[in-house]
Amino acid sequence: xxxxxxxxxxxxxxxxxxxxxxxxxxxxxxxxxxxxxxxxxxxxxxxxxxxxxxxxxxxxxxxxxxxxxxxxxxxxxxxxxxxxxxxxxxxxxxxxxxxxxxxxxxxxxxxxxxxxxxxxxxxxxxxxxxxxxxxxxxxxxxxxxxxxxxxxxxxxxxxxxxxxxxxxxxxxxxxxxxxxxxxxxxxxxxxxxxxxxxxxxxxxxxxxxxxxxxxxxxxxxxxxxxxxxxxxxxxxxxxxxxxxxxxxxxxxxxxxxxxxxxxxx
Length: 265
Description:
This protein is an alpha/beta fold and 265 residues long. 43% of the residues lie in helices and 17% in strands. The chain has ten helices and ten strands.
């Protein structure tokens, strides 16, 4: 991970480069609607309350877990033993972005949702409740963490989610093969260049015109920035949206020319 000072500097650069997040000067109707109806949706949905109540409980839980990390590791916890509270604080997506992902799913209503990196299941819960009719698959490499996530899904009475345990390198190809399509994918599992690009190419086999890929922490380190630049330049990608902490990839053919947007959020 970049140092906090370097990350802060990059965030300031992003703020200066980004459009104002109000839709001014945006010519694409799709992007304009996304800004107005998703990014700037100020409604308070019931799912927010239940998921954030779960987060509060996890932030107080001092249960110690032994973690086998298959990715780039935690930027905060360097040991393989971490409390649930620490994971909830440092690994779970903040509510601002979890709720944005919920709104994206609620607005676009994808039928097949895939998440790489369940962690404690907070973002997974936002994904699954955004469209209760969707088939939501989430993948987690650390067994003890996966077990806690399953308990959390039960607490929230989420019925439309299936968790696959194991290293993504082994589990992702077969998971993709069994799905008819990939309508919405959240990738938050390995903050390195080569695996991120490899996962992207594997996912491409089941994407369609309306598919949405969301990459977490695209400015987390130099490798993730390199991966993001490579992915957004791929010929199949028609549009990318940089929100600094997450990046969104679109394949919609109505974008006759490739578009890259940096939007303040």
